[in-house]
Structures are given as C-alpha cells and as structure tokens.
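Input record, target 12 of the design panel.
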C-alpha cells in the first residue's frame, strides 16, 4: 500500500468512527423526544430513520418496531410513510 493510500484509508476509518459516534449520540438524544411526542412506552423499540420528516420533533422519520399494528410495515409514527421508498 502506498503512503497516500494508507493515509486515505486511515482517514476513511477515522471518519467512520466519528460517524458511528455521532449516530449513537443522536439516537440517545432523539429517543426521549420521540417517546414524549407520541407517548410511546419504554419497552417499545424505536428505530430512527434517515428520511426528512416535517412532522417529527427530530426532523427525521421514526418507527415503532414493537407496535403490533405496524409490525412488518415499518411506517413512520409521525408522517405514516414507509421506511422503504423508491
Ligand atoms: Zn416521517
């Protein structure tokens, strides 16, 4: 591996670490706001999406993965749009 390639690979790895850290921090901070807005019980697993959502307090779609009515559909609890969009 050339020094240039090595430096770039190191940079990619470092940025991936930072991204994971930021995502984890975001999830920790966003969850309580989402639960409070929709009254979602603590034993429900909330998945945070990446779609922009003007109805959501975090600006992103969120999915209640434990709600039996929504199981398998994965529709945003704020805007109702599905996780998978083409
Ligand atoms: Zn949404």
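The sequence produced for target 12 reads:
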């Amino acid at each position: 591996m050339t020094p240039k390639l090595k430096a770039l690979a190191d940079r990619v790895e470092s940025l991936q670490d930072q991204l994971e850290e930021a995502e984890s921090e975001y999830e920790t901070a966003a969850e309580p706001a989402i639960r409070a807005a929709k009254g979602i019980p603590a034993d429900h697993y909330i998945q945070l999406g990446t779609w922009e959502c003007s109805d959501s307090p975090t600006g992103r779609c969120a999915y209640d993965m434990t709600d039996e009515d929504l199981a398998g559909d994965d529709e945003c609890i704020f805007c109702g749009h599905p996780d998978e969009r083409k």
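The chain has a mean pLDDT of 89.
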